[in-house]
Structures are given as C-alpha cells and as structure tokens.
Amino acid sequence: MPTRRTFLIGAAAIPIAAGGAYALLAPQPLAPARVYTEGGLAIRGTDPVAYFYDAMPVPGDPAVTHDWAGATWAFATVENRDRFAAEPARYAPAYGGFCAWAVAEKGELYSTQPKNWAIVDGRLFLNFDDAVQELWNAEPADFIAAADRRWPEIVAAV
Questions:
Q1: What is the dihedral of CA 33, 104, 115, 131, to 10 degrees?
Q2: C-beta of residue 101 within 8 angstroms of C-beta of residue 127
Q3: What b/e readout covers 51-87, taking b as 16+ CB neighbours within 10 angstroms?
Q4: CA angle, corner 30, sides to 44 and 32, nearest 5?
Q5: Where do the H-state alpha helices sit in the chain?
Q6: 35 or 22, greater pLDDT
Q7: pLDDT reported for residue 43
Q8: Between 20 and 30 A from 70 (CA), which of 21, 36, 88, 130?
Q9: More reliable by pLDDT, 124 or 23
C-alpha cells in the first residue's frame, strides 16, 4: 500500500526525470566544422541557390552536386549548380549553414531547418526552428553583427 513517504519520493522524482528527458531532447551544440552537413550533404541537401531564385527552400538532387569548402552541396538544377560553382560565396549560407542566431547569441553551432531562413543584404541566413527564426526576425542586423564577430573564433577551432 502506498504511503505518504513513497508518494513524496515519487513526486520528487518527476521533476528529475522530466529534467533528464529535457536534456535528451533539448538542442545540443554541434562539433566545430566549417559547413553544416547532414546525411553527407551540406545544409540537409537543400539547394542554396534556390533561396535566391525561387524564394523558398528546394531539395537538391543528389545526382547534381558540387564540392566546396569541404562539403558536398546538392542542387535542384544543373543551372543552379553552375551558378554556385561560379560564385559559391554569393550563394552559400552565412556561418556555413549553421544556425545564425546560435552563432550570434551563444557562439555555438546548432543545426538548421531549410524552412527557417532569411536573405538580408544579399546574404542567406538559416536558423534552428520557427521560434528561433521569430527571434532572429526581430533584430537581424544586431544578430548579424554579433555573429560576424563570433564566426572567425568558431572556425578557428576547426
């Protein structure tokens, strides 16, 4: 039969278990790298040029790729691949495609989602999720300035 003591012990264990679960589910910083890759492709295989011409994320074709900055980039079309190959710095996302907000605010590398993006002054920025994108959209100039200061320190560790 449950006693008051077992109830109190059980009640005390709930926050500890919840905290442990949060730690497992919470976003974790990634290892230092110059480009965010997943599944062997930069920026989850999304075509970086499409953000500029289609104004939306477009999955790249794994058969249409270009190697640059130590990563393989996928493109939806050969034309986009050729544009990127001619001017990669123009089309590649800032901070290697890592979360721009996290670079600015934490000085750390976090993953990104293709749908969380912005082009500011001709530069592509990717972010972790909808909530982070909302934060980013409130003050992009301030976040860009902070991330531009922090990025050289981060890539120096690579």
A1: 130
A2: yes
A3: beeeeebbebbeebbbebeebbbbbbbeebbebbeee
A4: 100
A5: 4-25, 48-53, 78-86, 88-91, 100-105, 130-138, 140-156
A6: 35
A7: 98
A8: 130
A9: 124
CB within 8 Å of 47: residues ≥ 6 apart = 57, 58, 59, 60, 74, 75, 76, 77, 80
Domain map (residue ranges) of the chain: 37-156
2 forms bridges with which residues in the sheet? none
The more confidently predicted of residues 107 and 157 is 107
User: How do residues 139-157 score in pLDDT, each as one tens digit?
Assistant: 999 999 999 999 999 999 8
- Residue 74 pLDDT > 60, yes or no? yes
Token couple for 102? 């996290």
At residue 157, the pLDDT reads 81
Adjacent-strand bridge partners of 119:
124
Q: Could you give phi then psi for residue 92, rounded to 5 degrees?
A: -65, 140
Other CB atoms within 10 A of residue 112 CB: 29
In 3D space, the residue among 109, 101, 111 whose CA is nearest the CA of residue 144 turns out to be 101
